[in-house]
Amino acid sequence: MRPSHIPKIAPEAFFAWIAGREGRYELVDGEVVMMAGAGRRHDHIVVNLITALNLQTRGGRCQTFTGDTYVATSPATRRMPDLGVDCGTTDDASLVADRPSLVVEVLSPTTGGIDVTIKLAEYQSLPTLDYILLVDTASPKVHFHYRAEDRIWTAIVVEGLDAAIRLDKLEVRLELRDIYAGLEFRPKPKLVEPASEACEPGGSDP
């Protein structure tokens, strides 16, 4: 991600500025930041997640949104997660989620560091948000952040194609097999311990 060479602007001016422009941009503390491009594995996972979420939220009180919808994390910041679920009112003219309950970031080498630090802290400050998924692309692994009953954030790692994630407040269940459908993974190298030298029967150390 890299800042563009324009002065700080308000959100209304930002949305006017990006209208009709190519590329994807975020507004970060009043500064316009161009988003890095995503790879094919990233896009494949995003499509799988949108499909799985939309099948379970369609027609309900909450709606799945794509990476063209922004999330306001502060008065001067508009983030663009890869996808999410909005449980607020629907306004066809608005580019900002009204009451986001879930946001998903599919990690990549260029943005992963920001996603798991700065963005994560911003998302966790949102009072309406219940779930955050940080999805790995190299292996079937999801960093799952959720608010417990006391509203304190809890984080667990969900790993393996046989695992699943329950988003009870959304009545959604996501199986990692569906999230990573169509992708192959390189096997992890096995650590082989060197064989210990055995003494011959009846032998002795020199």
UniProtKB/TrEMBL annotation:
It comes from the Bacteria. Pfam families: Uma2. Keywords: Endonuclease, Hydrolase, Nuclease. Gene3D superfamilies: tt1808, chain A. GO terms for molecular function: endonuclease activity. InterPro entries: Nuclease_put_TT1808, Restrct_endonuc-II-like, Uma2. Residues 12-170 form the Putative restriction endonuclease domain. The keyword Transcription does not apply. PANTHER family: GLR1098 PROTEIN, RESTRICTION ENDONUCLEASE DOMAIN-CONTAINING PROTEIN-RELATED. This is Uma2 family endonuclease.
